[in-house]
Amino acid sequence: MKVRIGFIGCGGIASAHMEQLSKLEEVEFVGMCDIESTKAENASKKYGGKVYTEFEKMLEEVNMDACYICVPPFAHNGQEEMCIEKGIHFFVEKPVHLDLSKAEEIAAKVKIAGLITGVGYVLRYFDVVDEAREIISKERIAFARGRYYGGVPGEGKIKWLIKKELSGGQLIEQATHIVNMMQYFLGDVEEVFAYKMGGINNQIYPDYDVEDASLLLLKFKDGYIGNLTCTWLWSGFSSVVEVVGKGIMLDYQGNTLTVDRGNRKTISISSLDPMFEEEKAFIKAVAKGDGSYVRSDYMDAVKTLAVTLKAHEAMQTGRPVRL
After folding, report:
1. What is the pLDDT of residues 272-320, one digit of tens each?
2. N or C: where does the chain have the smaller number of CB atoms within 10 Å of the terminal CB?
């Protein structure tokens, strides 16, 4: 039986999802929607599906099992709500929103409707992440440390990314992956404090108004503590989560997990394509009506959004914020 898929947003990240989904014989593309008609047309020519420039019309007219919502953070304006109204399962790229109260309302409606959802926290689908979680569950863990360093995406030419009101900034739009992984390893966060630094990139890139760097302090519900540092000042890229406990330090980076016990070190390298695994899990969940195959659903993603948005609140107030 085919799983009929529609897309809202046919840009870069959507194209990556389409390519992976096209490898699954049970997937049928039935609708392609983008406000730029050429993007929807190009996607339709390659994968199939009727072309639209208005998502409302597509969701009204096309019979689909699930919809991929791949729009920038500022562009969530009713897509999820209409999917819920129509009983359509959906996958949405992170961050799921810039307005926490609206995201929480959507999460509540999803729960009532009993829909299957997925969110693009793709790193969770690495097998080395499973290995790390298994080890963590058996050790006396104390804290985690995250790092997300890089340069300004597109050298400042992707204008929505460098505008606070459109992207939320690096922490909300990109380093959200690290926050989400720290939660996957150690559980829910109950309190966050944060500092920010700026004044360098805005002298280089016109219209840049987000922070250059940020530092978060996290308190987890189960007693762990953690920190996360982020910056768009570096010229390379580094994405790391370290978890430290009695006699053990785990270092997770992309497809690699290093477990250091002082006198013994092991390194595991994954050969999996996490995005393909993510697509397989979501499509299987929809086909079987079982959301347990999905490793980050909408409700989970809202918890991550809350941490990043409350961190920005702490930056403004100078006080810790409870979640």
Report:
1. 999 999 999 999 999 999 999 999 999 999 999 999 999 999 999 999 9
2. N
| Structural fold of domain 3-122+276-296 | Rossmann fold (3.40.50)
Cα–Cα distance measured from residue 251 to residue 241, given in angstroms and rounded to the nearest whole number: 6
* E-only strand ranges, the chain: 3-8, 27-33, 50-52, 66-69, 89-92, 117-119, 141-151, 189-197, 213-220, 225-231, 233-245, 248-253, 256-260, 265-269, 321-322
Token pair recorded at residue 298: 């909408």
Where in the chain are the domains? 3-122+276-296, 124-272+304-322
pLDDT over 90 (residue 1): no
- Which one, of 93, 101, 99, 100, lies nearest residue 117 by Cα? 93
Nearest to 250 by CA among 90, 91, 137: 137
Nearest to 122 by CA among 11, 292, 254, 303: 254
Are 68 and 59 a contacting pair, CB within 8 Å? no
Instruction: Tell me the per-residue pLDDT of 168-201, one tens digit each, with 9 for 90 and over.
Output: 999 999 999 999 999 999 999 999 999 999 999 9
Tokens representing 248 are 């053990």
CB atoms within 10 A of CB 67: 28
Do residues 104 and 298 make contact, with C-beta atoms less than 8 angstroms apart?
Answer: no
Tell me the pLDDT tens digit for each residue of 55-79: 999 999 999 999 999 999 999 999 9
Prediction pTM value: 0.96
Q: Which fold has domain 124-272+304-322?
A: Dihydrodipicolinate Reductase; domain 2 (3.30.360)
Q: How far is CA 134 from the centre of its chain?
A: 22
Angstrom distance (rounded) from CA 261 to CA 183: 23
For the chain, what percent of residues have pLDDT higher than 70?
100
- How far apart CA 33 and CA 39 sit, in angstroms, is 8
| Structure tokens that stand for 140 in this block | 């006396």
Six-digit token string for 210: 């987000």
